[in-house]
Amino acid sequence: MAAAAPHRIDTHFHYFPPAYLEPLAAWGQRVGFGGLRGPHRDWSIPKAIAEMDGNAIATAVLSISTPGVWFGEVAEARRVARLCNEFAARMRADRPRRFGLFAAVPMPDVDGTLAEIAYALDTLKADGIGLMTSYANTWPGDPSFKPVFEELNRRQAVVYFHPLAPDCCGSTVPGISGSPLEYPYDTGRAVLSLLINGTFARHRDIKWLFSHAGGPLPALAGRIANVVRARPDAAELAPDGVEREFQRLYYDTANAAFAPTMAGLMALAATSQIVFGSDYPYFTAGENVAALATITLSDADRRAIERDNALRLLPRLGA
Q1: How many helices (H) and strands (E) does the chain have?
Q2: CA 179 to CA 155: how far, in whole Å?
Q3: What is the C-alpha separation between 173 and 14, in angstroms, rounded?
Q4: Which of 32, 78, 225, 305 is least surrounded by CB atoms within 10 angstroms?
């Protein structure tokens, strides 16, 4: 059987510049992070392209994974964000039809983040901005980050969130890392933070993309809506209702294409808001393609998730 023609767009595809691994390792030694021998150590551009070619991925949107570029020092975060973004921009320049970029920024350094947004979008022509779901014990709706979202709204930017475990809750179950529970839970915390601090309501021109089917949102959307509805400022925070706010967001399928998860997500949001993601290299693209193939979808909905929705969100990828 002939291989499928490349058509998928992977919006959750990580890259690891060699120069990024050194500060990542130094940070890991300080905090006892256990992922220093993970698949990112074996990452390379040829391996990434081979993974794409083997799974009919036409374009992968590059992003930095957990823990991002913030290792506790402003100057270091600014330096690392720049080197990562320029590395990815070179990858895209060499293969413009194969790669997109969600640029890294040195949050929670607001001034540095504003400067990197300008450089990434104006000079490097990044496709969007990548953020983490929290920084230490601060979530993105925090008032201190207001200038960042004002600028992203002014630019009508795509903002992609990758989860990590906050300082409060790195590993709450002995013997279990933060990945299976705390990372997706932190996506829920980030969304709730942006909702109850009015960030969603104020910034209607940002296009928001969240990882792993929105983490706990499909299961907890009704509970959140009931709590917010009882607040005196509910109409201000969610002018069209909390459910509508969640329906406006985009969600990727990375490591989430399981029947109960997808049923919940598709009950929460229209198929038009769902895009394909793999979380490569922590999970293979093949694993995600095979998992999505088990989900009952019409041909039109499958193509929308695998390609068309991403093109609507990131039209440059179809140029």
Answers
A1: 14, 8
A2: 32
A3: 27
A4: 32
What gap in Å lies between CA 163 and CA 186, rounded to an integer?
A: 6
How far is Cα 277 from Cα 123, in angstroms, rounded to an integer? 26
Of 229, 252, 236, nearest to 11 by C-alpha is 252
Q: Which domains does the chain have, with CATH numbers?
A: 8-318 (3.20.20.140)
Question: φ, ψ for residue 16 (rounded to 5)?
Answer: -140, 90
Give 245's strand partners. Answer: none
Strand partners of residue 13: 62, 280
pLDDT digits (tens, 9 = 90+) for 189-248: 999 999 999 999 999 999 999 999 999 999 999 999 999 999 999 999 999 999 999 999
| Interatomic CA distance for residues 166 and 231, integer angstroms | 26
**Is residue 105 a contact partner of residue 130, using CB atoms and an 8 Å limit?**
yes
Residues 224, 170: contact at Cβ < 8 Å? no
Whole-model pTM over 0.90: yes
**Cβ atoms within 10 A of the Cβ of 4, count?**
10
Burial (CB count within 10 angstroms: exposed 0-12, middle 13-18, buried 19+), residue 38? middle
Task: Please name the residue that has the structure tokens 């998928």.
Answer: 8
Measure the CA dihedral 82/85/91/92, to 10°. -130
Cis peptide before 67 (omega within 30 of 0): yes
- CB atoms closer than 10 angstroms to residue 34: 11
